[in-house]
Specification:
The chain contains 4 helices and 38 strands. By secondary structure, the chain is mainly β. It has a 25-stranded antiparallel sheet that branches. Strands 1-6-7-4-5 form a 5-stranded mixed sheet.
Length: about 650
């Protein structure tokens, strides 16, 4: 099993031989299924569930790992890490249209470390059509979509190529007017004190979307430029302070990056140098509390409480990695990644807390919602060796060492083995240690009733043990099974009754995942997976233990595509998410299990090179709810019911 060639690695035809637990989804196949965006695609991944919060900041939950945290996984777009500094999350990219995506590679577990980046529970690599090779088909196209909630989208993908220069660009704009029934809101549970319980509301939560994104990738010989301007605005959902907001209340989450790269091979050496700048922000404008709210001493706000909160973050980073293959059977990699994160602007405006006047008063200096002096430097040093012991047996071993302005994560080893018994039977064993640094909203949030930052937070830590077996049934079909055991320490946690973030939860998680992809006939495609996860959660400062809260023990997902002809197909997606236990002390019933069924019809006109797809989602209008924390929204966060989507794609 020789080292992978460049083209094989780039096209990911060898994912079964990689030293990770990995699933790969192709964009064109997802389009056939009627999948609309990245979030819907991730819902198909084994062991991955979704969670949300009062901002409706949805996040994938890998293998039940801390559903209340954001930075459990990392998202890369064309190899650029796009997690924001503020939340250490990427929900602003979950609405990324599937038509802009060529391939999604999802690695489960901390074994998914990328050079200089620690992935705690998993990593997601989105590959756009910027990946283009000679003799590959042209993917230039226009896209238009329309769907439920007045959803509209338009965009394009375009590649320009010459012998030494490649330029890729994509652009899209999308919006909807989605509202979801919600309530009673958090005021009913005393979120703003007992005196305001009568002012609790039930109604439509504004979860609408307005978003545009412009990407640019330039490759000239050994030099590259990668850039994206991503503007995401969404409704304020369930309220900054858990009070149901107005329809026009909004949160803006811009996310921009610019990266310069140099990649060069010189005999037995390969050097990869990158330097970049990222900008992201939290920008909220909302009504925090309803009319006649009583706060601050007490002050009557007869027209309600209004706010504008803004925090902008800038990240500078630079990494250098060197690979050496001159030693027989070894590929040695070494390097570092340095990041400098800093808040560059912050403002905090509220209705006058003394008089109750609804007009905004500037509290940036006297009552800030965020530490305007927040900054953090981080250095990660990595060393790794890929050892090809024989044609059938290979090892990867190495470590990351990280320290930042506040904490030292220390030495984090990783060892993996891949044994190819023959061309159809592959075995893997993996041990890895990783961590998640506290996000800025967990460290620096101030003067907030729902969350209070803590600069003394330690990193969350995990030791992961994984075993996998892959049976290749043919070139396009396989059966993959894997088991895992995760030891999580110092997980970060807060509650409505104690909103300060603290390291108080340890969890032991174990489970297994089964995944099958293949065919029943020459005219169809089948994909099925099942995941089981269980474990124990220990709350250290309360000396309590319980089964994993807010985690579905059973997940089952699959799809089926039947191709009537090379131009016409009918498909279906089925998902089952099991019931979820509540956190200790929450007396509500379990979050109920649910099942959904989607269907899509896709037609391709070869003469004019366009594709028209019609999809109907959640056909039986099942009730889908994501769990809410106790003493917030007592009826949880209900998601969309039956809805439709029409997509037209025209190649040019």
């Amino acid at each position: 099993m020789a080292h992978y060639s460049k083209v094989a690695t780039a096209t990911k035809q060898n994912e079964h031989y990689q030293p990770y637990i990995i699933s790969v989804f192709k964009g064109k196949e997802l389009e056939k299924l009627g999948v609309s965006n990245l979030r819907e695609a991730l819902a198909l991944v084994p062991g991955v569930d979704m969670a949300t919060d009062n901002f409706n900041n949805q996040t994938p939950v890998f293998r039940g790992s801390n559903p209340l945290a954001y930075g459990q996984s990392k998202l890369f777009i064309d190899d650029v890490l796009v997690n924001s500094v503020f939340f250490d999350a990427y929900f602003e990219y979950l609405s990324f249209p599937i038509e802009m995506i060529k391939r999604i590679e999802v690695t489960r577990g901390p074994g998914s470390k990328t050079d200089g980046v620690n992935a705690y529970a998993g990593s997601i690599h989105v590959v756009t059509y910027a990946e283009d090779f000679k003799d590959f088909e042209n993917n230039d196209k226009l896209v238009f979509k329309y769907g439920s909630y007045d959803y509209m989208m338009g965009g394009f993908v375009k590649n320009f190529k010459s012998e030494d220069l490649k330029v890729f660009t994509d652009f899209y704009y999308q919006q909807d007017d989605k509202k979801l029934y919600a309530g009673p809101d958090g005021l009913s549970q005393g979120a703003l004190g007992a005196v305001n319980i009568p002012r609790s509301q039930t109604g439509d939560a504004p979860v609408w979307l307005k978003e545009y994104s412009l990407g640019l990738n330039i490759q000239y010989k050994d030099f590259s430029i990668k850039a994206r301007l991503h503007e995401h605005t969404q409704g304020s959902a369930y309220g900054v302070n858990l009070s149901l907001p107005q329809h026009d209340d909004r949160v803006k989450l811009p996310n921009y990056y610019l990266e310069l790269g140099y990649n060069k091979e010189i005999k037995d050496y390969a050097v990869d140098i990158k330097a970049g700048i990222k900008y992201n922000a939290f920008d909220s404008k909302a009504k925090l509390a309803p009319d006649n709210t009583i706060l601050s001493g007490p002050t009557l706000f007869s027209q309600g409480v209004y706010s504008e909160h803004f925090a902008g973050q800038r990240e500078l980073y630079q990494s250098s990695y060197l690979k050496y293959k001159g030693l027989s059977k070894h590929l040695i990699s070494a390097g570092y990644r340095f990041t400098n994160d800093e808040t560059i602007d912050m403002s905090s405006k509220l209705s006058n807390r003394t008089t109750g006047d609804p007009a905004l008063f500037d509290y940036t200096d006297t009552l800030p919602f965020f530490d305007k002096n927040a900054k953090r430097n981080t250095i990660i040093v990595s060393l790794q060796d890929e050892f090809q012991y024989s044609n059938s047996l290979s090892f990867i071993y190495g470590f990351n060492y990280e320290e930042n302005t506040y904490k030292t994560a220390g030495l984090e080893p990783r060892v993996s083995m891949v044994y190819q018994h023959n061309s159809n039977n592959i075995f893997k064993a993996i041990y890895s240690r990783s961590h998640r640094d506290a996000s800025w909203q967990e460290m620096y949030t101030m003067n907030n009733l729902a969350r209070v930052g803590n600069k003394n937070l330690d990193p969350e830590k995990v030791d992961a043990f994984e075993l996998a077996y892959i049976k290749k049934l043919s070139t396009d079909s396989y059966l993959q099974s894997n088991a895992f055991y995760l030891i999580n320490k110092d997980q970060i946690y807060n509650t409505a009754s104690d909103p300060t973030y603290r390291n108080v939860v340890d969890t032991d998680i174990y489970g297994f995942e089964l995944e099958y992809k293949g065919n029943l006939s020459s005219s169809d495609q089948v994909y099925i997976n099942y995941s089981y996860v269980s474990g124990t959660s220990y709350i250290k400062d309360e000396d309590k233990s319980s089964s994993l809260p807010n985690v579905a023990n059973h997940l089952a997902k699959g799809y089926y595509i039947y191709n009537f002809t090379s131009s016409l197909s009918l498909s279906g997606i089925a998902k089952y998410v099991g019931a979820k236990e509540r956190v200790d002390g929450d007396t509500r019933d379990k979050v109920e299990a649910y099942s959904t069924l989607d269907s899509a019809l896709s037609y391709r006109n070869k003469k004019y090179d366009y594709t028209l797809a019609l999809s109907l989602k959640n056909i039986f209008d099942a009730t889908v709810k994501f769990p809410s924390p106790p003493k917030t929204y007592s009826e949880d966060y209900e998601q969309e019911g039956r809805n439709f989507l029409i997509a037209l794609t025209k190649k040019f």
